[in-house]
Amino acid sequence: MSKLSLQPHHIVNLYVWVDDIVSVIPKPHGGHPLILRDSEVITILIWNALILRQKTIKDLHRSVVHCYHAEFPKLPGYEGFLKQCHRVTPLMLVLLQQLLITKAPIRLMDSTMLPVCRNHRAKRYQVAKEITGWGKNWQGYHYGFKLHVSVDPEGRLCGVALTPANVYDAHAMPLILNEYAKLAVGDGTYNGGIMRRKIFEMYGTIVVAPPHPTQKKWLMAPWQEALLNARAKIECVFDELKEHLNIVSSFPRSVKGYLMHYIRILLAYQVATLS
Q1: Structure pTM?
Q2: Domain containing 45: what range?
Q3: In 3-state terms, what secondary structure has residue 275?
Q4: Among 30, 59, 144, 157, which one is least packed by beta carbons within 10 Å?
Q5: Where are the beta strands (DSSP E) in the chain?
């Protein structure tokens, strides 16, 4: 996985790159003039995720005030800045969609839990309780969301889906694959025959997954073994998202806050890998 080595002056390059893309996205007209351009807000959110990595928007705002006042002299107060962050969330989603490697023929796919609180606090959790759920993996039970991802062999995002934690991995395959995917490699949770046939009928995609332990008579071709061995790449992606970019968070205080947080982290990861 190639990653960009960032220096402080690269924030200008990042802004120019974001502004070139955002400027061609249609935006509604009218309303009061903004203190910060949309591209400036998006640049701040991406830069923070890559370099400063504060876990809350309040800490992010404070760091920009102290460290990047020259670059953003018209930065509004925290409440105004937070409103602008929520307002540019749809733009960040469009930008992320444009950066996805949608024509990759080989995809590695998996999912990871995004807890929103500790298990013993789940009954009292109120922020996004309508769209969260209980899920279980090899680590145990988790309460929150589940991130479904497909990446190319270089670790670049090809498809992304966010669901409640109780959604089965194979059911998200239609959301993270498309007609360009010829081979999709996953773990044993993607081995269901019904969904594999559905994916082949929808996209013409062959799903490669290890057989169930009870299926001892199945034979594996060398190319299948090579693909399954390459699936460890997606674990590196999840490690980067969770351990370094802090995608797991319980700090947002609204559904919009969670959506903005997840999108900015995924966007920052994709910018780093594509750079």
Answers
A1: 0.90
A2: 10-98
A3: coil
A4: 30
A5: 106-115, 133-137, 140-151, 157-164, 183-185, 206-208
